[in-house]
Design goal:
This protein has a seven-stranded antiparallel β-sheet. It has two domains: 129 residues; 107 residues, Transferase(Phosphotransferase) domain 1 (Transferase(Phosphotransferase), domain 1), CATH 1.10.510.10. It has seven helices and twelve strands. The radius of gyration is 18 Å and the shape is globular. The protein is α+β, with helices and mostly antiparallel strands.
């Protein structure tokens, strides 16, 4: 398989290639990647410690000594096509695209996950490939879809402001999210020192010209629809607090 022609990422990532697979692997993660044979993660041919619920149910946790818990997430099709094809993609480079966008945003200080590897593997017989991405698990956080359902009224405004600030930092760094919903925001649960983190940049985009205003408003509108769909009435009522947090100057990015 072929890797996209990007040179800027190779200062921190190794290239791993076989006739049927290719990967970007962060250099300091290479030994663990090889030891756990993560080149086989697109097809689930690796060890796992805990399955993760949510989304399409495809992710699991792998515990390591030097990097802590990792999230290994093979890509799975959604929508009507998932009834016909579960993990085969015919075009594009899903994992590599997500890695490149997320890594760019991470280097610019945006609150996004720390990607350690992205793998794509040719599926035989027939055309197409499967893929997976490996990130460092952000412990002490929960999806905002869960947190907003259980947040006391007095804390709701603070949390919504924090969510607004996190989205603004991503936009200021040039990141546009393709599916900004309440499940793709991780908020602190047991560690108040953590920032809100925006996850799942599959199909997202990065631009050095900044995210246009219309696209920014589209992201916020999509999140608002997600809150309404989940019937998070208290969060919907506190929406002005999110707008206030978004409008504030981003300031220095907190450490993730």
């Amino acid at each position: 398989m072929h890797l996209p022609p990007v040179d800027w990422i190779r200062d921190r990532f190794d290239v791993v290639q076989t006739p049927d697979a290719a990967a970007f692997v962060r250099t300091d993660f290479r030994e663990i990647f090889d030891r756990h044979d993560l080149l086989g993660c697109p097809a689930g041919r690796v060890a796992r410690d805990t399955d993760l619920s949510g989304g399409r149910g495809a992710a699991w946790v792998l515990s390591t000594q030097s990097f802590g818990d990792l999230v290994v997430r093979p890509y799975r099709r959604g929508g009507w096509i998932s009834h016909l094809v579960k993990r085969r993609y015919l075009a594009g480079a899903r994992a590599f695209h997500e890695l490149l966008v997320t890594e760019r945003l991470h280097r610019l200080g945006a609150p996004v996950p720390e990607v350690l590897a992205a793998v794509q593997e040719r599926i035989r017989p027939g055309p197409g490939y499967s893929a997976c991405i490996v990130t460092r698990r952000i412990t002490g956080t929960v999806p905002s879809a869960e947190a907003l359902a259980n947040t006391a009224e007095g804390q709701m405004r603070i949390l919504m402001e924090d969510i607004g600030r996190a989205i603004r930092r991503c936009h200021e760094a040039g990141g546009w999210h393709a599916d900004l919903n309440a499940w793709n925001l991780l908020v602190p649960e047991s560690r108040p020192d953590l920032p809100v983190v925006v996850i799942d940049w599959d199909r997202g985009r990065w631009t050095d010209d900044g995210v246009p205003d219309r696209a920014r408003r589209g992201n916020l509108s999509r999140l608002a629809r997600s809150l309404r769909k989940l019937e998070l009435a208290s969060a919907i009522q506190a929406w002005p607090a999110l707008e206030s947090g978004y409008a504030a100057e981003p300031g220095p990015a907190p450490a993730a």
